[in-house]
Amino acid sequence: MAQENPCYHCGLPIPDEVDVALSFQEVTYHFCCPGCKGAFHWIQSAGLNAYYQRRTDVQGCRPEEVEASRLAAYDGAVFQERHVRTVGTLRETSLLLQGIHCAACIWLNEAVMLSLPGVVEARVNFATQRAMVRWDPTQTRLSTILLAILQVGYRAEPYDPERAEGLHRQRNRDLLLRLGVAGFGAGNLMLMAVALYAGYFQGMDIHFQQFFHQCSAVVATPIFFYSGWPFFQGTWRSLRAGTLGMDLPIALGATATYGTSMVATLSGHGEVYFDSVILFLFILLTGRYLENAARRRAAGATERLLALAPRTATVWRAGVWSVLPIHEVVVGDRLLVKPGDKIPADGLLLTGVTAVDESMLTGESLPVTRQVGERVLGGTLNVEGGFEMQAERVGEAAAWARISHLVERAQAQRPPSQQLADRVAAGFVGVVLVLAVVTYLGWSLVAPEQALLNSVALLIITCPCALGMATPAAMVVATGQAARQGILLKSGAALETLSRVRHLVLDKTGTVTLGMVQLTTLYPAVGVSEAELLGQAAMAEHYSEHPIGRAIVRAATERGLHWSPPQQVRNQPGLGVTAETATGTVWVGRAGFIAQQLAAAPDEPPGRQPASWVVCAVPGRMLGWLALNDRVKADALAAVTTLQGMGLTVTLLSGDHRQTVAETARLLQIAAFHGEMMPEEKEAFVQRVQATAVGVAMVGDGINDAPALARADVALAMAGGADLSTEVADIVLLNGRMTTVAVAVALARQTMRVIRQNYGISLVYNLIAIPLAMAGYVHPLTAAVAMPISSLLVIGNALSLARFAERSTS
To answer: What is the pTM of this model?
Structure first.
């Protein structure tokens, strides 16, 4: 293994390994730097993260140099290729942050990253503890970002689902251990407190009293620092970065109580509260443990989506099938997929027939049959037969990776409803500290013995965490559940916007219809055969992705016609195509488009019925008419009825003939419809509706829908349609079902309802708790019990979205 980076201390390149030691879990490499004579000890994991490297022991280098050298491995080409995405001229990656436990941690880490030159975006998700960071590689490096995070007391590393699960278990073990120690100490201190309380009422010699105080101090001191360490560490991190973190009130309250008790013990005068301080640390740790578990559950759907990533693939290499790590698969590789295996890449089926479980990507509950020539998606599960396939999209380009990244970005982005809450929560701690001082001073004048307890109760009971989690918890659950239902959200604001929509505009072809247009009738002109008409039309539409063009090519193929691909094609969305072929120019499109080319209106077909009609022509003459029909989706009527029942006004738009659009609208019971609309006319229609409606959503799937989709307040695109439509869309419906539109609207409204409820819970809790604590009605122990309740209520309320999503699709 060669080391790319030079020694951080002396700058000289580090040579290849001179000694390799194998163990059960890892491979260890020993280096020697020729410049500083330092001994380098590198560990390379034998599992998934085999390219992660960290230097754990260096002689002759300062600690900060060791850390910087360790992080420099993330700037290496191997890591960058596998974990860093290129977005234009920028770089983007996902990081797993260790030590995140409150909203202040989020603000601090985002502020630190955004303060670095070249970092253009940094978003941290509270529920998943993942950070999405985007930077300019010409101004900064990934290792610089990681080092800046480390310097404020947090650790960041490339995100990996298995690593995240391991850290979650480790964090739980640590909390449980501190929780157990605090519980053990609290129990023993309570026994001594019982003796002291009995002595207060029945009398106790001063020497015995001091003895019990000293014993309590001896037991409480190590437990106080060990079990209280998470709160002290969080406070130190925030103060070092110049912010007031949410651990600060807890640390101040606990320290004040412990300090007062210690002074009383050493001086021999006053009351001690060792049992109280250890008991409320125990209760606070219990709340934090339960909160961690609830937050993990809230992020469960998203984690399952990320876990779709295949780990290995069976590849045909050098004349044999070899099992290789997934990152070694390249486009064009021949892959073998056995029953029960995850499909390692997007690609084309070469042999065999199988059933594929695509539920985690599309929400389709039943396995889908795939045959030779059809495409399969990476990350989905091969249920039945084995098959061979050719890889077309691998790694970050595969479907599961693209969807995971979009879901991650949607969760990281803050919708408008969260921005005000963030500003309020940011100043909340400062207000609480001021109120605590006021409480202490006020009670010092009235009842000095109550001053400390009441101010500590106020510090403990206040909880801005619920306010900080109100939106993130709901958005994480909503986006994860949406992904499971085949609804891919591209931004966090999309749900909020969709919840306000009151007018829904539907495209026809491929949206409310199957998009599997079939050629039903040919009307050739005089002197033209059906074969000539269909052959010329198929030649012009050879490269078309439009449903009508694909139907013409499919019909010509089924009839055994042969043609040469056109040399040049010019597509005019909503009108038709112009193809330059070996025999001349061919036009296929709407009657108006052909009339412009021929300078004369084409003759009408006999007995024209509701259908999609296109004309084929060559210079100087019309070759004939082609009639095509499309079937309405089986769930379209139910979906439209549901949407109308939700108070939405539904309008059907299409570039198809008015008769055809009218017939589709009649079948779907849609009163408002418009046919023969150009792309710019669809956009203008959406713009007119926006002037009168609260919010307008557009659902489409074609290139001709792109302008209207871009104009709408929120755009929904059917997957499988034109790439341009999915690029401009805010929401992509992966399963193509119309009922999914209704589910998306219902989920959006319920999500905003839950977010408003969460804000209400946080506001009501603090409006009640703060006055009671200041008035002396709350003991510190009661405050410790009440503090985590608001956060747990917010998370529990957010989890109700999972049950709502399941009910809405059942």
So the answer is: 0.59
